[in-house]
Amino acid sequence: MSGFFYIVTEGVHDVAFLGRLLSVAHGASRIEKLEELDDALRNWLGSFKWPTKRGEYHDISRLAVPAPAFYRLTTNKVVALRNAQGLTEIGKTLEIDLEAFSRAQNGPEAIGIVLDSDDEPKEQRFAKLRTSLEVVKLPAPSSLGAVSSGSPTVGVFALPEPGVPGTLEDILLALGNVAYPELAATAHGYAEQWRRKADAEATTPDWRELKKPAGAKKATIGAMTAVLKPGKSTTVSLEDNRWVSEHTKELACLQPSLAFLSALLSTPAPPATVPVQSPGEAP
User: What are residue 139's phi and psi, to 5 degrees?
Assistant: First the structure.
């Protein structure tokens, strides 16, 4: 099995964003055919089933399978981007995937975890991730944004950058202001207008999502993608439009993310030849 890197994120937008960073800054190409993966990664991908059974019934509420997206670097190594579908699911996702890698007797060279900073103090957020890493017997890095030594190496990053409150939307707004300045200004005014209306109608349940801390930011991005990709999702716009491009890759808002990716993908480490030990498994 050739070397590969594994990055787990909070959501599908993070996967699309990181995929664009890999393509623009690292020359990576999206792997679209199952046959282009080696046997171990094909077997792992085959473990993603839909619909999933929850108790006595199969859940059909999710229309997208949370399977990973794969990118091939110019070094021929593969990066697997995994959507954990929420911060609270990252620990469980790590446990499931590391067990699968252990059965295949091959693990990733490096493991990255990417989440949103939100408004939670970085020490508190990092403490939660450290606990999740301890459960699966992975070495925690010294801090958010850092990459540990060892095999596999482990890095944890918080968007927009460690220690700064916010989410991926903060980065996208900065990118949109440069890539699509007129559209961004119009979308921002539109979202703010409805946010003020939502504040004035405190008892109306329709505005609940808009009144959240990142609500107006998400609405602004949504308004922009509705024009850029009518009828399609923000994920599709992130993949197809010029949010992350040669024109925007030098912007300050991207540098922390780019630095983290470079550290994770280039930290010297021998390939993981010993299977990753599953939680509870005897040494």
Answer: -75, 130
Q: How many CB atoms lie within 10 A of CB 143?
A: 12
Domain with 217, as residue range(s), is 181-241
Burial of 226 (0-12, 13-18, 19+ CB in 10 A): middle
Give phi and psi for 205, each to the nearest 5: -70, -20
In Å, what is the CA distance from 278 to each residue of 79, 95, 134, 203?
22, 7, 12, 49
Q: Which residues contact 262 (CB under 8 A, 6 or more apart)?
A: 25
Q: What letter would DSSP give residue 280?
A: T
* pLDDT mean by block of 10 residues, the chain; 283 residues: 85 96 97 91 82 76 76 95 89 92 86 89 82 90 92 94 93 98 98 94 89 94 97 95 97 97 76 44 44
Classified as helix, coil or strand, 229 is coil
Burial 21-59 (b: 16+ CB within 10 A, else e): bbbbbbebeebeeeeebeebbeebeeeeeeeeeeeeeee
> Is the same domain home to 10 and 130?
yes
Helices and strands per DSSP (H, E), number in the chain: 9, 8
Token pair, residue 214, equals 């990142």
Phi-psi region for residue 56, left (φ > 0), alpha (ψ -120 to 50) or beta?
A: alpha
Chain centre to alpha carbon of residue 231:
23
Confirm if 175 and 244 have CB atoms less than 8 A apart.
yes
In 3D, which of 222, 248, 256 has the Cα closest to residue 117? 256
What are the residues whose beta carbons fall under 8 Å from the beta carbon of 69, sequence distance 6 or more? Answer: 15, 19, 30, 80, 81
8 and 124 part of one domain: yes
Same domain for 194 and 128:
no
| Number of domains composing the chain | 2
51 neighbors 59 (Cβ within 8 angstroms): yes
Verify that 46 and 152 share a domain, yes or no: yes
What is the maximum alpha-carbon separation in the chain? Answer: 60
